[in-house]
Specification:
Blueprint (H helix, E strand, L loop, with lengths): L1 E9 L10 H10 L3 E10 L8 H11 L5 E4 L2 H4 L4 H13 L3 E4 L12 H32 L13 H9 L4 H8 L3 H14 L9
Parallel strand pairs: 1-2, 1-3, 3-4
Helix pairs in contact: 4-5, 7-8
Length: 205
């Protein structure tokens, strides 16, 4: 059985992967699994959320490089919420990769409780989605009561600069890049200026 291990630590807290790796390797050896890959994730104080090793591990799983992924605990596998974690575990499942948590005996997709694990996590994820939806609705209702504007703030374009650009026959592409807005937004602003332009009085002879 081709196996990979994934570790994640925080250098801010002085952690090292060496606290996890020996036991994970021993676990695989005890079962006669061949360890073909190791992914060590070290998070720094910068707070970067790229998780390059995690992304590489997921890509290798998709390509069938290994059949089992072993990690220390679920909170070492993912620091995201239940919904995101469930999505990642399902990605492994879709790639025909089984997963095992060393310190959580219940989290073993190779065991008899595999379907139960997915079912429980799916139910929790559904509750989380419902709570998120309720928080969003509550926030919108509060904003309406307080008279706050909903949606994105309109793009700001200096009208004098826009008039000068139009007078210089700049193209829409040039103006949209210069003002940092989409061409649609730019076109609407130009139409607004045209409507606000005072009409010239033409004397009748």
């Amino acid at each position: 059985m081709k196996t990979a291990i994934y570790t994640r630590v925080s250098t801010v807290k002085g952690q090292t992967t060496e606290n996890q790796t020996p036991q994970l390797e021993a676990f695989c050896q005890a079962r006669g699994w061949e360890m073909v890959a190791r992914y060590d994730e070290s998070e720094t104080a910068s707070g970067a959320r790229e998780r390059k090793q995690f992304a590489r591990m997921m890509e290798d799983a998709r390509r069938g490089k290994f059949q089992v992924l072993v990690f220390w605990a679920l909170d070492r596998f993912s620091r995201e919420g239940v919904l995101e974690t469930l999505t990642d575990l399902r990605r492994l499942d879709d790639a025909k990769v089984r997963y095992v948590s060393l310190t959580e005996q219940w989290l073993d997709s190779m065991g008899m409780f595999r379907d139960a694990i997915i079912g429980i996590m799916a139910a929790v994820a559904k509750i989380e989605r419902q709570r998120l939806s309720e928080r969003v609705k509550a926030g919108l209702e509060r904003a309406k009561r307080e008279g706050r504007r909903l949606g994105r703030k309109p793009a700001e374009i200096d009208e004098d600069s826009l008039r000068k650009a139009m007078a210089a026959d700049w193209s829409y592409w040039q103006m949209s890049r210069a003002f940092g807005v989409s061409r649609t937004t730019l076109y609407r602003r130009i139409l607004k200026l045209d409507k606000e332009k005072p009409h010239e009085n033409v004397s009748q002879k």
